[in-house]
From TrEMBL:
This is Integrase catalytic domain-containing protein. PANTHER family: TRANSPOSASE, TRANSPOSASE RV3428C-RELATED. One of its GO terms (molecular function) is nucleic acid binding. One of its GO terms (biological process) is DNA integration. Residues 39-205 form the Integrase catalytic domain. It comes from Mycolicibacterium psychrotolerans. It comes from the Bacteria. PROSITE patterns: INTEGRASE (PS50994).
Amino acid sequence: MSAKRMLPIARAAGYEGSARNFRRLVAEAKLLWRNEHHRGRRPAVWSPGEYLVIDWAQAAPGLLLFCAVLAFSRWRFVAFATDQRASTTLALIAEAFNAIAGVPARVLADRMACLKGGVVANVVIPTAEYTRLASHYGFAPDFCHASDPESKGIVENLCGYAQRDLAVPMLTEAKIAGVPVDLQSANAAARAWCVEVNAAIHSEI
């Protein structure tokens, strides 16, 4: 209920302050209520080979990061690209499978336009191209619920880690050396970075 709708009720109950102060009071009360009545979230329990979670991140103007992580083992795949077109995304999913040397049961993505053909009853329908790729490799496409970024927090963490630990140092070194970063050298650095981070055993597993 909005402060505008509540104000006449509050005035009838004896409130004598201004409408502006009332709006502030209502906003503060709503914030406190939301903090104390969070909808909660059960921690995800992953199974081996069940989910590959994918997402895009910005590395620099004109340079993007495709990130994928196997949910159970925390195995990471990162590659650079210059666009987020469907053909690029599908090719990078296939490249991730090749690097894994296997195919998970499901691939979880947010509602990215390049993979989303439409939405029916709040269920995402994958594009024909994505469906063909899924049929070829034998995995099931899965999509997050709308406005629910927490459901793929595992890959959001990877995006931030890759930006800080891979993209920023690489771009900084290139800037200092006065050498432009091309896609081929960026992806060579990404492959080396993936070998390094995947060699470390994750604390939770």
